[in-house]
Structure formats: C-alpha cells, structure tokens
Design goal:
about 700 residues; alpha/beta; Rossmann fold; seven-stranded parallel beta sheet; 26 helices; DNA 5'-3' helicase; ATP-binding
C-alpha cells in the first residue's frame, strides 16, 4: 500500500468522526500518532510511539489499522486492556465509523486454548491421575465445576464465546476441570464436539476478520516459537509494549517438577504395554533426589547428579512417547490417551532443553515453599534475537505505551526488542511544528499540510537522528521513534517528592524513619494514598503502622481481599489507603480525589539473587556493556514510571509522588531514572510535600 492509496486526510477524517461520535475532543498527540501509525503501515517501517496517559492512544492506532488494506493484529499485555478494547473501544468505534469508505471494521478476539471451556471435557469428563475419566469431582470443587459446566452449555446454545473471563467466578484449579491445553486437545477433526468448539469458532471468526485482538504471549508463541495460532497477518500493533520482553520471556520459560514427571508416568502406564512408563517413574525418583541435593539458585554449570537425572528423564520420556501405540480411528475420542501422551511429550521437551544446558538459556532451581516443592526453571538469556529474526523481519511492528522512553530516549527499549540504534530513521516528512511566543501552538502536519492547531498543548516530538532508508543495509530493520506527549500538565498537576533526608533503604525492610515519613504523609493527605512497596512484608508493615497511628483512616493491604474488591473500597472512601506490591504498580486506574498521594518505598531494582536478571546483567558486562544500567536500572525505570503514572489519570487530578529512596537524587544513575518519569515539579523538602497534600485534602473535603 502506498501513501496515495490511503490519503492522510482519510485517516484524519475517520479519527475526527470517531472522536465526535464518542463525545471526545481532538488531541494533537492522538492525531500525530494516528498519522505516524498510518505512515508506518504504508511504508512497512517499525514505529515506537510513546503516548502519555490521556492521549487516547487506542484510537490513535485503531483508526489507521482499520484503514490498512491487510489484516492487523493488536496485542496487549493485560486482560484489562484487552477487555477495554473488545468491550468498549472497538464496538463504539465500529458504530461510529464502520460504514465509512476504506474502513474494514470486522474484528475478533483470540486467546490461548486453555482460556476457553472444552465441551469434550465437560461432557465426557476429565482424566484423573490414572487417566480414568471422572465426570465431576467431589465436594465444593464439584459444585463449582457443575456451575461452570452449566454456564458452558448455555454459551454453546447461545453462540457465546465460552471464554474464561466471561465465566462465573472461579479459581484456576476449578477452571482446569473444564478446559484443556493444546497438548490435551483431541483436535477438531477427531473430537465429536468439534463443530461446537469455542476455540474453533474463535479461529473461524478471526479468519474472516480484518483486526484480531490477542495478547503478547499468544503473539510470541505464534511468531517466535513458530506454533501457528493466528491467521496470516501483515502488521502488529503492540500496546503496553514496555511489557513485551517480559511476556515473551515468560512464554518461553519452562518448568520441570519431579511430581509432574511422576504424574506423566502414571498417566502413560494405562496405554504403554512395556516397561517404559515404569522407567519414567524411576527417572522421576532420580530427579527428585538430585533436586534435593542441589542448592537453590542459578546454575552456571548444572551439578553432575542433576545433569545425569535430566538426561535420564529425557531418555525415559522419549522412549515412553515412542511406546504409545498408534491411535486407531475407533480411539479417536480417547481424551485420556491424548492427554497422557501430551504430558509425556511436554516432559520430554522440557528435559531435553534443560539437559542441553545451552549458553542461550538460563537454568535455576527454585526455593521450596510450604505449598510448592523446589523445581527447575529454564528461560532464554535474551529475547531480542528471536524477536528480531522471527517477528520484526517478517511483520511491520508498531509498539506503543506511556513508558517507552527510558532515560529520555527510545534506545534502551528499542535494543531490548531487537531494534538497533543505527537503524533509527530521520522522519520522511514533518509531523509537528511548534511555534508562537505566548504559549506553544502545536501544528500537526500531514502530507496535505496543516491539520489542526491547539494552543497551549504539550508538543509531540519526533526523534530526528539516524540515516535515510537508502543508506541502510538490506537486512536492516528501520524504525522511527515518536513521543506524542500527554495532555496533562505534570509540572502544575504533580509534585515529585524525594525524601533525601532519609537513610538509604536496607535489607531489613522499612526502618523507623521510613515508617514515620509514611505516617506523616498519609496524615497530611487524610488518606487518599496508594502505597507501592518492594515486598509484601514492607506493605504489611506499613499498613500495620498506619492503622496503629491513624486509626480514623481505613487502611487496606494487598491480600486482605481480592484486588477488584480492594480497588472498589479504595475508590468509594477517599479517606482510605491501599498498600501493596507489584500487582498495584501497573494497571490500577483510580482517577479523581481517591488517589492524591503515591508512595514508593524504594527504587524497584530486581533482587540481586534473581536468576534471570543477574544472568542478563553479567552477560551485558561480558559483552562490554554496563550490565547494571542495561538490566537493573532499565527494570527499575520501567516500574518507577508505571508506578508514578498511577497518580495523574485525568486533567483534573493533582497530587504527590513520594519516593522514600534518597538514591533517586544522590546516585549517579538517579538522572536516568528521573528522566524516565513524567516531568513533575520536584522537591526534596518534606514540608513542601506535606503542605501541598494538606491543601489538596482541604479542597477535596
């Protein structure tokens, strides 16, 4: 497709129609983003777009995607955003512009197989550990399974999706009783219920749709691992792209438990006539013994006994898979057979990967807990290589997030996904021009000239370094970086307070001085506080201290209830504090007076003993780079930016982000971290922070 095929004006007009129909207002950043995405799709150039909260980035990429002449995939990291796109943004957008010329508004949702109810498992039963089919478990689990079965049958009758997210409330254990993995699936051709299958219905709809909404993990499995999950597509828009490397890593991480090897052997014994299943059981015993003798942590060299046990499991699993008889047509619907063989195949694949102990992988042994015994994990040392070779080389990729520029630049994140700094392009045409003396006037420009002027708006900025396309080698992956800014005036709406007077955080958790600081800040804010802590223990300690000294406030801690319930209570009562860990750092959206203070107890560096992070940091050092800055500081910058982003969610929000770690202003790497944050007004004076919070509290009432 060329720029002439879909004129810039067509995207502008469709965006304007959508904004008007949805009751919004035109935003220069959103318009600049839409034009840049359209240009990237037309020219097959990769694009990184940083779009601050409130920009309206969903429309900024959905509108040009609907205009593109080939199928586009949109991949999100969180279920919350996927739900927002499918349940709110896309239906409203289709209603607004679905009939316009050049717009293909058909769309579908695709998730992993285990996210859908399985009618075969529901109607025929689930195999127990011996492979025997059981209809319904006993007790409360059985009652919930019956409820889920009834729901799934109603979904089948009504033409519903059968998706996990639409099901009655349940636990993961309960859902596993009505779903299957891809290994356990009989396949549509063999399953007697293939015509009604929810997964097959979803795939059929995707085959007929122009836009497919999925998640990072399924995208990784399809594009990087080469398992076909998504119909052929031309381009992908990756929203929440700051999460991409973590999600790709997660999708490529395997685990091996001695108990799972044992369970696979028990399933196999019903179908394997020789001693191969017994040999696999013996290998499980050897693995359990070797794990018991090994020290938890990362292995630079796998201990000899453990290596021998992995080889034993690998060889026994391979022999066991080969010993399964060939299925006859009469056995086509034998779910026990399919699932037993699938389990042994999974054990073989993981044991083979671990036994190879390749330099491209990191292997470690977890610490045992009361609930889970120690087990082995293996993950890729880096993912940028596979992402470059198997995704970027084949598709046009647009990545967007509110936090893509780390240290004020796109280079760090671009490199993590496989894009080289030397491949960054100068813009082919001006996107924005800022002029005017009495406050900026942002002129968003397209191929046809000026589009819109918005006086006093923050200016989008396009990175201009880099060569022209013609100067790059044939195997280059050219890309452009665009920051469209934010409609929020962070300098007036938010204060970044760094408690420079506090001692640096230690290994023993929160000290008296940090707890006193928390209480004083919360008291000044009269609640209205989101506390983001580096550990569950720190969050609980802070919550206990605030409850003790400020009993008139409501103080909630993560774990007191399910997160949606905690968020509801937090929103309903402004004189409430909510303290928690990583689950609150991203995705919690609480605009208004509910949240006027965000407390971050320490810079969220990864733990020094984190096996994967420490391995990546060492690899960067060995390659001549700065492992601390490339790995640890980058990880911390992303989380800090996401955490600070919880404060300002609308044009009317105001408040304080309080970081209790003085290293943010005293350490050399502090500049990199603060440059990754929204441009808030900054102070190290605790009185200024408390007085600002008190004024806000008085105004809020």
């Amino acid at each position: 497709m060329t720029a002439e095929t879909v004129p810039s004006s067509a995207v502008r007009e469709t965006l304007a129609a959508a904004v008007t129909a949805l009751g919004g207002q035109e935003r220069p950043g959103q318009l600049a983003m839409a034009e840049a995405v359209a240009h990237a799709l037309e020219e097959h150039q990769h694009l990184l777009v940083q779009a601050g909260t409130g920009t309206g980035k969903s429309l900024g990429y959905l509108v040009p995607a609907l205009h593109h002449d080939k199928r586009v995939v949109v991949a999100t990291a969180t279920l919350a955003l996927q739900h927002q796109l499918v349940e709110r943004d896309l239906p409203r957008l289709v209603d607004a512009v679905g009939g316009r010329k050049g717009v293909d508004a058909s769309y579908a949702v695709l998730k992993g197989r285990s996210n859908y109810a399985c009618l075969h498992r529901i109607r025929e039963g689930a195999p127990d550990d011996q492979g025997e089919l059981i209809q319904v478990p006993e007790g409360s689990l059985g009652a919930k399974v019956l409820e889920l079965r009834g729901w799934a049958e109603q979904q089948a009758e009504d033409g519903g999706t059968g998706e996990k997210d639409a099901a009655p409330r349940h636990t993961d254990k309960e859902w596993r009783q009505v779903s299957v993995s891809h290994r356990e699936c009989l396949g549509a051709a063999k399953c007697p219920f293939g015509d009604e299958c929810f997964v097959e219905r979803a795939r059929e709809k995707a085959q007929k749709s122009h836009l497919i909404v999925t998640n990072h993990s399924l995208l990784a499995i399809d594009a990087i691992e080469g398992v076909p999950m998504i119909p052929e597509y031309d381009a992908v828009v990756i929203d929440e792209a700051h999460e991409l490397t973590a999600r790709v890593t997660q999708a490529a991480t395997d685990e091996l438990w001695a108990s799972e090897v044992e369970r696979a052997s028990r399933r196999a014994v019903k179908y394997v006539e020789g001693k191969e299943a017994d040999d696999l059981d013996d290998a499980a015993d050897a693995l359990r013994a070797a794990i018991g003798d090994a020290e938890p942590g990362r292995f630079d060299t796998v201990p000899e006994d453990l290596s021998d046990a992995l080889i034993l499991v690998r060889d026994a699993a391979r022999a066991c898979v080969s010993a399964f008889p060939k299925q006859q047509d009469s056995d086509a619907a034998d779910a026990g057979f399919t699932q037993a063989k699938g389990m042994v195949q999974d054990v073989f694949a993981t044991a083979e990967r671990m036994a190879a102990n390749a330099d491209s992988d990191v292997i470690w042994l977890t610490e045992g807990t009361d609930r889970f015994p120690p087990h082995l994990c293996i993950a890729p040392l880096q993912v940028w290589g596979p992402m470059r070779d198997k995704l970027l080389a084949d598709k046009t990729v647009v990545m967007t997030s509110a936090t893509l520029m780390l240290g004020g630049d796109f280079t760090t994140l671009a490199a993590s996904v496989g894009l080289k700094p030397t491949e960054r392009l100068a813009p082919s045409r001006p996107v924005v021009e800022v002029r005017g003396a009495a406050g900026p006037v942002v002129e968003v420009r397209g191929a046809a000239g000026p589009v819109v002027e918005v006086r006093g708006a923050p200016a989008p900025s396009l990175e201009t370094s880099g060569p022209d396309t013609d100067a790059l080698p044939d195997d280059a992956e050219p890309w452009v970086g665009l920051d469209v800014g934010s409609p929020f005036d962070y300098g007036k709406q938010a204060i970044l307070y760094v408690a420079r007077h506090l001692p640096p955080p230690g290994r023993d958790g929160l000290g008296t001085s940090q707890l006193d600081e928390i209480v004083e800040l919360v008291d000044a804010a009269e609640g209205r506080t989101l506390g983001l802590f580096s550990s569950r223990r720190a969050a609980e300690t802070a919550a206990e201290k605030v409850r003790e000294r400020l009993p008139h406030l409501t103080t909630l801690a993560q774990g007191d209830a399910q997160l949606p319930e905690l968020a509801r209570q937090f929103v309903e009562d402004p004189h409430t504090c909510l303290f928690g860990t990583l689950g609150l750092w991203q995705g919690l959206d609480v605009p208004g007076d509910t949240c006027q203070l965000v407390i971050i107890d320490r810079i969220p560096f990864p733990r020094p003993d984190d096996p994967l992070m420490s391995a990546r940091q060492r690899a960067a050092d060995q390659a001549g780079g700065n492992g601390f800055m490339q790995v640890a500081a980058t990880h911390a910058a992303l989380l800090l930016a996401q955490g600070a982003g919880r404060l300002i969610r609308t044009n009317d929000d105001k408040g304080v982000v309080a970081v209790l770690d003085p290293r943010l202003v005293t350490a050399r790497y502090g500049r990199f971290l603060t440059a990754s944050l929204p441009p808030m007004w900054t102070t190290t004076d605790p009185r200024v922070a408390r007085q600002a919070l008190a004024r806000l509290a008085a105004t809020a009432g």
